[in-house]
């Protein structure tokens, strides 16, 4: 019993001696100041890095070989995130070293864990790497109309792991970047509206082509989506009961479907004004009259 009391008293004395030791508090204060300085330097480094990246992208936009605004925003945001993660990781390691944590065993253990996770999550790593190259190669961007496999629609979000595509009927499709092997981007270059117009064989082809050209020219003047004067190519095919004439219009990206509908509507109205017949199935009935003997 006496031994226990002595040990308890000795523990109290050691604790009081430790707490009242000025050198201990000086070391704690120095460590706290170092941690605060490391934190502040990290924040300043992030601000400087962000300002540098913004300046780089501003200079890039003013150069003759500038990127488009969509790509600059996407890459700029990704670069800032990478800078933030990198600086935060370094700051955490430096703070741990100040409080006495051995970094070498920690880094070695993290490397082993990272290797195990890498083997267990190969598809995740593949998605991230694919997303990285999609962004930097500018294969497509937010707002582009693309087709990936059976999915076609407008890109709503591009991440390092997944891409979200909204179809024209409203469904949102989430596609892992690693499964994107072929992409068709409809928003990069101008599109082409192609309209085939069928007329009856009895109609005058030159008159019909002239009417189509006038109608397309009027639509070109009032429709800003058409970037080049429409062209009537001529007779496309000779069918069983119709002659098909083709007209084409170069339009802004993804505007070809709307222009095709408008052009068909205007041509139909013009044909009605001129009395030009659009062929439709007809049935001719012959009635055989038998002679009745008296």
Automatic annotation (TrEMBL):
Name this polypeptide is given: Mechanosensitive ion channel family protein
Q: How does it sit in the membrane?
A: Multi-pass membrane protein
Q: Which UniProt keywords apply?
A: Cell membrane, Membrane, Transmembrane, Transmembrane helix
Instruction: Give every Mechanosensitive ion channel MscS domain span.
Output: 124-187
Where is the Mechanosensitive ion channel transmembrane helices 2/3 domain positioned along the sequence? 81-122
What top-level branch of life does the organism fall under?
Bacteria
In terms of SUPFAM superfamilies, this protein maps to: Mechanosensitive channel protein MscS (YggB), C-terminal domain (SSF82689), Mechanosensitive channel protein MscS (YggB), transmembrane region (SSF82861), Sm-like ribonucleoproteins (SSF50182)
Q: Which InterPro entries match?
A: LSM_dom_sf, MS_channel_1st, MscS_beta-dom_sf, MscS_channel_2nd, MscS_channel_C_sf, MscS_channel_TM-2, YbiO_bact
Q: Which family does the record claim for this protein?
A: Belongs to the MscS (TC 1.A.23) family.
Give TM regions.
24-42, 82-100, 106-125
Q: Which organism is it from?
A: Ferviditalea candida
Location comes to: Cell membrane
